[in-house]
């Protein structure tokens, strides 16, 4: 396990790893938007920007990986990807598990294979955000901007009821889940202030700046 961890840490920013993860995250993002197709079609078009939370997060990280592979960086996209990738990764796993626990069927019987797939992929999202935080170059004002968007998105999701559809067993708990989501936004922002702001020699300051 230790040699594997060392191998992973040593290769996170190697071109072959960046391009491999780029492909994986790109395909996952495309599937994520497809997953939301029914909800997007039943939501007013002007609100669609706030609907596909997870694929928007993974798309941002996909762009970060592409920029790194091209020796470019965008601190604002880094900050957005870090906070939202972790937040929605943790959120999805927590909600699926809670839905399984609250179901009338036995826990293992209540979960479909897609639930296990989603938990695996969303755990990967959260882990990616933490692992790649060592390279990020965002500053406090980038986190302020991302925090403003994230809190706005929470408000839109739970005040206008356009949050991701919940498992039927916990659909009546949307108010409590809204509070959990809001708290998770603050946890994510604080976590990536801690991980992304202190100086580290791995940060990609030498990469050409693109945008903010």
UniProtKB/TrEMBL annotation:
Q: Does the keyword Transcription apply?
A: no
| UniProt keywords, alphabetically | Membrane, Transmembrane, Transmembrane helix
Pfam entry (one) = DUF1405
* Keyword Ribonucleoprotein found: no
**Which residue spans traverse the membrane?**
16-34, 80-104, 116-136, 143-160, 175-197
- Highest rank taxon of the organism: Bacteria
- Protein's name according to its UniProt entry: Putative membrane protein YpjA
Q: What is the lineage of its organism?
A: Bacteria, Bacillati, Bacillota, Bacilli, Bacillales
